Amino acid sequence: VQLQASGGGLVQAGGSLRLSCAADVNIFGSAATSWYRQAPGKQREFVATIDSGGYTDYAASVKDRFTVSRDKSENTVTVFLQMNNLKPVDTAVYYCAAYNKWGQGTLVTVSS
Residue 21 in contact with residue 7, Cβ under 8 Å? Predict the structure, then answer.
């Protein structure tokens, strides 16, 4: 697995979670990394992206609630998705992706 996503779980509405996506810095150190999500019965949709220079972009539905950030170490580049004020509509499997490679997904469930 080249991209390892983690951090999902069950949270009540209004709560927070932080997702992480770890990857080999030698392969993905210069990549733009994006988060997507797929809710049950729906198509996968874009959530947020960050490039190696720190430029970020967000889907309108999560802007002002989610923050994407990036940390680079000697061996690993990790992209975080801080999710605040979560809503039941945010329930989905969240995936990270870079260079057309996808992580395995992590489930976020928001209860009302």
Answer: no
- For residue 27, give the H/E element and its range: helix 25-28
The DSSP secondary-structure symbol of 44 reads: -
Please give the structure tokens belonging to residue 65. Answer: 């609630």
Longest Cα separation, the chain: 42
Question: 55: Cβ–Cβ under 8 A, 6 or more apart, which residues?
Answer: none
The pLDDT tens digits of the residues spanning 36-45 come to 999 999 999 9
Read off the tokens for 102. 């996808």
φ and ψ at residue 30, rounded to 5 degrees: -105, 5
CB 5, CB 19: distance < 8 Å: yes
Position 62, amino acid: V
